[in-house]
Design brief:
Layout: H1 6-27, E1 45-50, E2 53-58, E3 61-66, H2 77-86, E4 93-98, E5 101-104, E6 109-112, H3 127-133, E7 143-145, H4 151-154, E8 170-174, H5 175-181, H6 184-188, H7 193-206, E9 214-216, E10 221-223, E11 226-230, E12 239-245, E13 248-254, H8 260-263, H9 277-294, E14 297-300, E15 308-314, E16 317-322
Length: 329
């Protein structure tokens, strides 16, 4: 027979009681969160140093939508769907992020592209909210540079009330894109509803600013240390940028490629948004051959946030090596 001491019995009894009390507490509603889930993501901004410049990537959000027929024009839709599935996108759908960039050169605060703007949907048009989270006042932006005149790059020029969102900024647009999109003859020749909508949107957003925007040329600085680089095809005046400070350099590629899992891996695929798909494919090869050879950091408007990385040759295409998140500048 086991010899159990009075002290041991009391300790054992206390432990059982405590366990029972814990079971009662765990089983009660007291441990269930009374606060509902937040239901939204943390603000999307990411800072890094580039020489003496400070770079702030800003998320304008992302859109998820069913893949349209002909989204990639020169391959079967089943192949495009399989590519999306391989990238773990929702079944039958595409997920496209939008990421403007702010560059503080020390003398100028420059915003390249303005995102999708207001009144689009709850998951996009987040630039104003995320600028505020990053501590950037729209009134402090000195220069707004538009890479090309598609809606997801220019609509954020105006607020939902139609007021200029960056009231103290000089707004710069690529000269060739301005000429193309503002041409009545070109608008009359638009051969798809998408193109008709694009022409109308440019006039809606920028039409009343015609005498206030500055048209810039390729090969020229649009701000200190930021030079416009010709990368046509997506649009006639589509522009990327070389950002240089000291020995540090970055390429802001705008829409040289849309979703990199598609058009970086397969640079000869033709996305529906490219006005001149053959020229766009040639631009991709030229641009990424240069970036890969020089091992230059790239900021991609449609790259997954924080939308920076390096490109390496991979067979007939390229692969993206995303940057590692760095908690310090």
């Amino acid at each position: 027979m086991n010899n159990v001491s009075r002290r041991g019995l009391i300790a054992s009894t206390g432990a059982v009681a405590a366990a029972a009390a814990l079971d009662t507490f765990v089983g009660s509603s007291a441990i269930h969160a009374s606060t509902p889930p937040a239901g939204k993501q943390a603000p999307g901004f990411y800072r890094a140093r580039l020489g003496d410049f400070e770079i702030t990537q800003i998320s304008d959000g992302a859109a998820t939508f069913a893949m349209p027929d002909g989204w990639v024009k020169n391959i079967p839709k089943d192949q495009a769907l399989a590519t999306a599935a391989a990238a773990h996108m929702p079944e039958g759908k595409l997920n496209v992020p939008f990421n403007p960039i702010v560059i503080n050169t020390g003398s100028k605060l420059v915003l390249i592209d303005t995102g999708y703007g207001p009144n689009i949907g709850p998951t996009v048009g987040l630039l104003p909210v995320h600028l505020a989270a990053a501590g950037i006042d729209p009134k402090s932006i000195d220069t707004v540079v538009l890479s090309h005149l598609h809606p997801d790059h220019i609509n954020g020029v105006k607020t939902k009330d139609g007021v200029v969102a960056f009231p103290n900024a000089e707004h710069k647009v690529p000269a060739q894109d301005w000429t193309f999109w503002m041409s009545e003859d070109n608008a009359a020749k638009a051969d798809s509803q998408m193109m008709k909508n694009y022409f109308a949107n440019v006039r809606k957003v920028l039409g009343d600013m015609a005498d206030k925007v500055t048209k810039y040329e390729w090969g020229k600085e649009v701000a200190p240390g930021i030079t416009a680089l010709d990368t046509p095809g997506h649009t006639p005046g589509h522009t990327s940028f070389v950002v240089a400070s000291g020995n540090a350099k970055m390429l802001v590629q705008s829409d040289v490629t849309n979703i990199p899992e598609f058009f970086l891996r397969n640079p000869d695929w033709h996305v529906a948004y490219d006005i001149d798909p053959v020229k766009a494919a040639q631009t991709r090869h030229k641009f990424y051959d240069m970036a890969a050879a020089e091992k230059t950091l790239i900021a991609g408007f449609h790259f997954a946030f924080p939308s920076q990385g390096y490109v390496e040759k991979d067979g007939n295409g390229y692969r993206l090596v995303p940057i590692r998140w760095n908690p310090v500048l």
